[in-house]
Amino acid sequence: MNKTDYIVMDSGCVPFGEATVMTGDGPAIHDLYALTGNKWSNTDVELECGSGVLPFTYLMSNPIHSVQWAMGLEILLLDV
Q1: Total domains, the chain
Q2: Containing domain of residue 36, as a range?
Q3: Is residue 34 part of a domain?
Q4: Mean pLDDT for the stretch of residues 2-28
Q5: How is the chain classified by DSSP, letter by letter?
């Protein structure tokens, strides 16, 4: 990537605070809905390829969210 003049890279780093979760994994988005109780929209929970959208809040105080942030940052800082 460092040798390419024009490139866009998504590090996968989660933002702390309000965000929107979008996935092609219907059962996973349903689990997030059950955990948070936030409004959600999906096409089909039962199918493997059902997609979904859910508002979500990433918290600095949550260890899982902090690890997700750090993993994305490590990928971004790799000298590829």
Answers
A1: 1
A2: 19-77
A3: yes
A4: 79
A5: -TT-SS------PPPSEEEEEEES-HHHHHHHHHHH----EES-SSSTT--EEEEEEE-TT-HHHHHHHHHHHHHHHS--
